[in-house]
Amino acid sequence: NPAAMVQAMFHLGEMVTATQSVSDEILGLLGQEMNYTIQVVSPEEEDRELLDTFDITYGEDAGDEDDLEFRPPVVTVMGHVDHGKTRLLDTIRKTNVQEGEAGGITQHIGAYQVVTEVGEQERLITFIDTPGHEAFTAMRARGANSTDIAVIVVAADDGVMPQTVEAINHAQAASVPVVVAVNKIDKQGANPQRIRQQLTDYGLIAEEYGGDTMFVDISARQGTNIDALLEAIVLTADATLDLRANPKMEAQGVAIEAHLDRGRGPVATVLVQRGTLRVGDSIVAGDAYGRVRRMVDEFNEDIIEATPSRPVQVIGFTSVPGAGDTFLVVDEDRVARQIADRRQARMRNAQFASRRKRVSLEDLDKALKETSQLNLIIKGDNSGTVEALEAALLKIDVGEEVELRVIDRGVGGITKANVDLAIASDAIILGFNVRAEGKVVDQAAHEGIDIRYYSVIYRAIEEIEQALTGMLKPEY
Ligand code: GDP
């Protein structure tokens, strides 16, 4: 019972209350003290156990070695803002439309495939149609490694910029090989050699300098050297990756985009990673399930079968899956529904648990029993006030037991990224003459994130000060 546990914890030298959450480590100790084995199960393990009960394995299992077949590489385009990522994706999409293909009009479904000729062979490449590393990282965070190769776009007239470096870091952290597209070579002042030099600092050494990274000079606007870039992608894939998958298994993969369509209901673009997805399959993606009623490709043409690395739009889910959710095909509708239901129930529990854990100014003193650090995110209407507010807040005398930290600051409205960070680090968000809008407000409310609005600096200082004094630990 709780009282006995609090007592046991006390013996361990931990002062806790019955309703407070404790670290996994302490839980383990507590278990020993009370002669129980306590196992802390991660969400991934829990999900694996859930699938186990249905005799389903996700990922690892590739089936019979003899059934493995080559699959096209999946590419994400990353790089600094305005360096031409979107333009490049458009150009590739347009120049590689196969003749006779439904008038060649592609629609954005989140990914597309193109054909290119490399050494007399026709080779396919799949492009994720959302530029930037955000989607890439979000998918990785959910355990879905969707990308085989990263194309890093650098504008030759601008050079290596902060987001270029970020993109390289993300690719390297994921062990994804990089092809560098040096873009805008049509522009005056373009200096492609300088880009090669700059990038040596980040471990990307061009082949012509004895390294193993392929650099291709392109103009996304004029369509220059696009074929060479596609060839470089294929060659890099051939040289560094073993891209094989078993098309004979039940399909698994990842949902890369999903929305509610007025006429068609929930629509999800999925990328098949193994197996073959077919019309009629029972499917579950995250906590959404359904039966594949129809599949269409980026030309809005019907498809009956999708093999590994093929992106397709799936119609037939009963609700909208999340972008980045993994999907799998199961034997029966009943199983799909059960898996989805259990995941939903688990998510509700997890949200309930995490909501209770979060800090708000009102219950800071309670929260302090868990942590003596108050994390703040400051957003304001201009950089002057943001800096002034931060400086003033950091001057508050908080004593030695509490630490005030400004973990992020910026100009502009309160965004989803701010709320995500607040969730990850239990922070409070201060908005100075700026607000959160619509969905962001909902998300914050849902996750129990405290957002405070101010228009006078001293009001903000006053409130934080009060909260902090109320927050100081009672002395024994
Ligand atoms: P993103 O933010 O990286 O997606 O960049 P965009 O694709 O939106 O491109 C930013 C700007 O650069 C747009 O005005 C493009 O038309 C322009 N741009 C992109 N590629 C080229 C190029 O190869 N040459 C020139 N001159 N302009 C380009």
Write the SSE topology.
Layout: H1 2-11, H2 24-33, H3 43-52, E1 69-70, E2 74-79, H4 85-95, E3 111-118, E4 121-128, H5 133-141, E5 149-155, H6 162-173, E6 178-183, H7 192-200, E7 214-217, H8 226-240, E8 244-245, E9 252-261, E10 265-274, E11 277-278, E12 282-285, E13 288-296, E14 302-303, E15 305-306, E16 311-317, E17 326-330, H9 333-357, H10 364-368, E18 373-380, H11 383-395, E19 403-411, H12 416-425, E20 427-432, H13 438-447, E21 451-454, H14 457-471
This protein binds guanosine-5'-diphosphate.
Give a nutshell description of this structure.
Helices cover 34% and strands 25% of the residues. The protein contains 14 helices and 21 strands.
Strand content: 25-35%
Bound molecules: guanosine-5'-diphosphate
**Straight-line distance between termini:** 27 Å
Structural class: alpha/beta
Radius of gyration: 26 Å
The portion of residues assigned to helices is 25-40%
Mean pLDDT: 83
Shape: globular
Q: How many individual helices?
A: 14
- Low-confidence segments, given as residue ranges, are 472-476
Number of distinct beta strands: 21
The major pleated sheet works out as: 6 strands, mixed
Strand order of the largest sheet: 3-4-2-5-6-7
